[in-house]
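Worked example 3 (structure in, sequence out).
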């Protein structure tokens, strides 16, 4: 008999190995690293979704004539509503994987949820910036040519301008889904 043999491995601290390698955009434990960010993102996404839904509802159901500024506000409100949906997806995944994101990172980042979130954020960002640019130009045009009613921007002009913005925004948001860059690189699903 040789005596007792003890296994001391259980006393050694376990070293947590995260994949992908943790960095500023790929955390190990939580998508949103700080509690105040969690509270803030829920607050912002609820306001963005509810507020922009109400704006869309009021503008669409209004009995007033649809003017160019109202039409542009509808487009901006929809873009901001989509950004709220993106924030809701990120906040929900953070809540579901709280403290153990490393167990879900690969599934999340390679799954359809991350691709959907990435599409929403890129589409919403591009459409929002495009719409704000069109609103700025429309306001400038309205002020500059205030006395010349024949040079007024009409809805028949604004619709194709915004249609171009929608096509551009969708195209840019779809590119990572087609292999140009990727939404899988970071935990918050940005290309």
């Amino acid at each position: 008999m040789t005596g007792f043999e003890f296994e001391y491995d259980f006393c050694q601290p376990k070293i947590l190995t995260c994949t992908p390698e943790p960095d500023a955009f790929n955390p190990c434990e939580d998508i949103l690293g700080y509690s105040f960010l969690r509270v803030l993102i829920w607050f912002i996404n609820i306001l963005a979704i509810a507020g922009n839904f109400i704006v869309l509802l009021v503008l669409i159901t209004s009995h007033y004539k649809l003017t160019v500024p109202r039409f542009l506000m509808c487009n901006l409100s929809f873009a901001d509503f989509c950004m709220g949906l993106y924030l809701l997806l990120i906040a929900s995944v953070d809540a579901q994987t709280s403290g153990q994101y490393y167990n879900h990172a690969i599934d999340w980042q390679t799954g359809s949820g991350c691709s959907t979130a990435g599409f929403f954020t890129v589409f919403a960002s591009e459409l929002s910036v495009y719409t704000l640019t069109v609103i700025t130009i429309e306001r400038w045009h309205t002020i500059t040519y205030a006395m010349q009613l024949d040079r007024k921007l009409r809805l028949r002009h604004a619709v194709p301008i915004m249609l171009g913005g929608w096509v551009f925004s969708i195209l840019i948001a779809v590119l990572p889904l087609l292999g140009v860059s990727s939404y899988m690189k970071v935990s918050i699903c940005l290309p």
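Notes: The two ends are 63 Å apart (CA to CA). The mean pLDDT is 86.
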